[in-house]
Specification:
Layout (H helix, E strand, L loop, with lengths): L1 E6 L2 E3 L5 E9 L4 E9 L6 E7 L6 E4 L7 E6 L4 E6 L8 E9 L5 E4 L3 E5 L2
Parallel strand pairs: 2-11
Antiparallel strand pairs: 1-3, 3-8, 4-5, 4-9, 5-6, 7-8, 9-10, 9-11
């Protein structure tokens, strides 16, 4: 089985920074995509950032509200995806979930347990 373990959440003041990490363990094939989602109270889960690998060579995508502030990165050797969050705003407060998709053809999807990020003064 595959499991994703997240870490790095916490309470931070506006303008502060946090780095989230998510590591996959277990037996799996090639990683097709990695991503970060978040869900605030009373709102739908939304995509924050993603990295996709494919025939085209891969691509990175961010939701508009985090562009220029957040950076998604990966370490394939460690099966880990990171989300560096700078200039945090109260609007960023949410539970953040990592997501891995394995196999170009199979598209097996797994989710992390979620980590709380709270931005407040």
């Amino acid at each position: 089985q595959v499991r994703l373990v997240e870490s790095g959440g916490g309470l931070v003041q506006p303008g502060g920074s946090l780095r989230l990490s998510c590591t996959a363990s277990g037996r799996f094939f090639n990683i097709y995509a990695m991503g970060w989602y978040r869900q605030a109270p009373g709102k739908q889960r939304e995509l924050v950032a993603s990295i996709t690998s494919g025939t085209s060579g891969g691509r990175i995508n961010y939701t508009d509200s985090v562009k220029g502030r957040f950076t998604i990165s990966r370490d394939n050797a460690k099966n880990t995806v990171y989300l560096q969050m700078n200039s945090l705003k109260p609007e960023d407060t949410a539970v953040y979930y990592c997501n891995f998709v394995f196999g170009v053809a199979t598209r097996q999807e797994y989710w992390g347990q979620g980590t709380q990020v709270t931005v407040s003064s």
